[in-house]
Amino acid sequence: MRRSGAAATALATTLLGGCYLGPLPVQYAALAVIDGRPTAVVAVCGRPTVHVDVYLDDNNTDPDLHEWSVTVTLPNTVQDVEVELLGSARPGWEITSKPHTIGSPPGGFKVTPLTSIDPGHHYKLDSSSEGPEGSMAPPVMFTTDDLSRIGAGEVLTAIDSKHSEVISRTSFVHARCGY
Questions:
Q1: How far is it, in rounded angstroms, from Cα 174 to Cα 151?
Q2: Contact 54, 125 (CB under 8 A)
Q3: 25: closest CA among 163, 158, 123, 174?
Q4: Which pTM does this prediction carry?
Q5: Domain extents in the chain
């Protein structure tokens, strides 16, 4: 009896990696440049709120986590929403990045607000929903050099944890939400 490639892959995943065979978590945010500013375009997919995080990700010895986070409550039914990265609070926005400490020494660390996106640094953009067993969709990795690659009506989206591609904003929203 012959099995299809998909069935064999599903069986191998079950045997080697656990029991979950459902869909992987979705990365709802992509990076756009709107009016010259880095902006998250978030596919809403019927949710009443969206959460956006931007992290400094230089893999250096800085023990602090530098992040900017916001929760946006949507006023009406929209397909997508623009969230200017590091923007100030607007109606419906709650900036949630505040200085605090997570854990205690030796494994604890400080969280400090990210206040700028500067050349020479690496960043992660995330607006995914946690999947089963804590799994997360890959974030959008970017530098300021990537901003020049993004044209009008386009977004930079994650392909996997190390790669991204520029696609149309419409294609991104359709791929994430199916509309």
A1: 18
A2: yes
A3: 158
A4: 0.82
A5: 27-177
